[in-house]
Amino acid sequence: MFQFRLASAFVATVLLAACGSALSPKPATAGVLFAVVENGSPSQPGTVAIVGLDGKAWATADFQPRVGPVIPDAYAPLQGVAHVVGTGVYYIDGTGTVRVLRVGSEPQIVARFPLQPAQEDAWFTVSPDGSRVLAGILTFPALGPVISGTSWSSLEGPTTFDLEVTQRGGGTTTLVHWETPIRFPQGSSGPTAIFPVGWTATGPVATLPEYLTSQNIWQGGPLYVIDDSGKQANQLGGSDCYSASIARGGLIPCISGQAVTVRDQGGSVIWSTHVDSFSALSLYLAPDGQAISDGLHVETRNAGMVAMPKNFLVEGWLDKDTVVGRPILDDVSTGNLAWISLSDPATVHDLGFKGDFVSTVG
Q1: What CATH code is carried by the domain that includes residue 53?
Q2: 141, 274, 291, 319: which has the highest count of C-beta atoms within 10 A?
Q3: Mind listing the pLDDT tens digit for each residue in 192-227?
Q4: What is the side-by-side strand order in the sheet with 312-319?
């Protein structure tokens, strides 16, 4: 049920915050704006904000962080809680409520997907016009007594999954539901989880992960367009493409064995990279698809690997020539959010606050 590589540990701090916002009008000279999450780990934050390169926040909102599942001697890969669609930042809280934050307005509720207090792994995506939200919610078995001779809790009860969709002005519809006594269903041993990761002109896109948990390496799964009934339509990226994301322009960072390629939706290889295939969640494509990062390394299609500062953790792209991330200070902490231009990769521009990058806004 697990894939193995070098052992690692993950420590998350869960904070609770009341829902609210602070607003400022956007100036005409503000330049690029981008979304960040703060106050907690990258996967379990309690604040979302829209900020500029001067570090000033133009809109912020606090929310109840998700708890996330506890998996004995492993972890469940978690999608980020916030996604940008147009000028809005859509984010999900620990109760399953999805809100949208925009500059100049209060957060608005756009969907509700009831979640249990713990053991749930929720992935979601939003249509380009913001009218629909599709969520895949996997509920792992509950924690039971500690296993004798270990520090790990046992797991008791079924694994369940729901694929749900909401539409503006309507309620929530369950498209797919299953329940199984199999602890971690995978491959042919049980039903498949459908985790939404993006939206194209032909509809929502989801990854069908081969593994729901891991002790380290996690390469996602094949990507499919999901039709209105929740069924898998055409596969994207080719039959050997594993991924957990699709870029706004439709290109896909594909993992095939130990290789990472950039492909179009039909499966044609645009270019072959030399970045690491360790984590599908750490593959970030530049907006034009001509550069990629695996979190620790950056490669451009034309010039090859970029000499990045040691221990800088890339979290995404501000534009096709600029990455955003945080310096790694030690095994458990990182520094302020910062940006690096590929034309001057030795210079780290500190934004002056601790947060994690989501995406550019607008």
Answers
A1: 2.130.10
A2: 291
A3: 999 999 999 999 999 999 899 999 999 999 999 999
A4: 312-319, 322-327, 338-341, 349-350
